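Reopening this ticket.

The earlier resolution said the output was attached, but the attachment link was broken on my side. Pasting everything inline this time so it's all in one place.
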Amino acid sequence: MPQLNPAPWLFIMLTSWFTFSFILQPKLLLLTSTNSPLNKLTSTMKTSPWNWPWT
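Inline output:
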């Protein structure tokens, strides 16, 4: 069964995992978010009950 042969895909999977884990991930983690949730003000929303006309 050729689909169970790991020879062509195992190397590709390991190479992509290594590339993401050791090269791309540290670079992505260094980026700062421009929309930090710590800078937002906490405000409570005032809710009012809905008056249904048929009740």
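Reporter confirms the inline version is readable. The first helix runs from residue 7 to 30. The mean pLDDT is 79.
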